[in-house]
Specification:
The complex is a heterodimer of chains A (about 110) and B (about 110).
Chain A: E1 3-6, E2 10-14, E3 19-26, E4 32-38, E5 45-51, E6 56-59, E7 62-67, E8 72-77, E9 86-94, E10 97-100, E11 104-109
Chain B: E1 4-7, E2 10-13, E3 19-25, E4 31-38, E5 42-51, E6 54-57, E7 64-70, E8 73-78, E9 87-94, E10 104-105, E11 109-113
The chains are: A mainly beta (about 110), B mainly beta (about 110).
């Protein structure tokens, strides 16, 4: 069956460290994968997209990798700040639709 | 930011009553989506639209119907609400041919069915 998993429901890290979030999937062949940020009581906001032929994408303190052999994407936030605390969702492209993972709630502790 | 608004933002209703949630976008996006979000399940697609009067079912469409009579409006109807439909509902839209395939989300509609 098709499945998308994110490494943990919650992740706590110390300010200044690098946060690494994992998205694993089975029985999908996405042309691209996206990451979104969601704050409590708000809708998700798009952060980054990475295509199947790209290994790595960066945007400011964010970095995403995509390994289609392992069927895994890693999302890194370097020099993390308390303002980065939020839930992060991965989403696989499935035609014109998107399938979302359950999310990882990141808390950056001062 | 794309202008997507959802109404109502909060609603409490009783089992068996009909409910309609409205999504309005001002960006002339072709694609529109309705998701529900529940703890432990993430966002699950209910229905989507790829143009005026063109809609299709998603993963969890049972008990829901949609209509899109204008580009800017996408309505989600629960014909007879049940307690299992208590959830937060998100509308989203997407441009055609956008490089990123970015979804723009509304702020959500919290529905409680008693």
């Amino acid at each position: 069956s098709q499945k998308i998993e994110q490494n943990s429901e919650a992740l706590n890290i110390q300010e200044g460290k690098t946060a690494t979030l994992t998205c694993n999937y089975t029985n999908y062949s996405p042309a691209y994968l996206q990451w979104y940020r969601q704050d409590p009581g708000r809708g998700p906001v798009f952060l980054l997209l990475i295509r199947e032929n790209e290994k790595e994408k960066r945007k400011e303190r964010l970095k995403v990798t995509f390994d289609t052999t392992l069927k895994q994407s890693l999302f890194h936030i370097t020099a993390s700040q308390p303002a980065d605390s939020a839930t992060y969702l991965c989403a696989l492209a499935a035609g014109q639709n998107f399938v979302f993972g359950p999310g990882t709630r990141l808390s950056v502790l001062p | 930011d794309a202008g997507i608004t959802q109404s109502p933002r909060h609603k409490v209703t009783e089992t068996g009553t009909p409910v309609t949630l409205r999504c309005h976008q001002t960006e002339n996006h072709r694609y529109m989506y309705w998701y529900r979000q529940d703890p432990g399940h993430g966002l699950r697609l209910i229905h989507y639209s790829y143009g005026v009067k063109d809609t299709d079912k998603g993963e969890v469409s049972d008990g829901y119907s949609v209509s899109r009579s204008k580009t800017e409006d996408f309505l989600l109807t629960l014909e007879s609400a049940t307690s299992s439909q208590t959830s937060v509902y998100f509308c989203a839209s997407k441009r055609t041919g956008a490089d990123t395939g970015e979804l723009f989300f509304g702020e959500g509609s919290r529905l409680t069915v008693l």
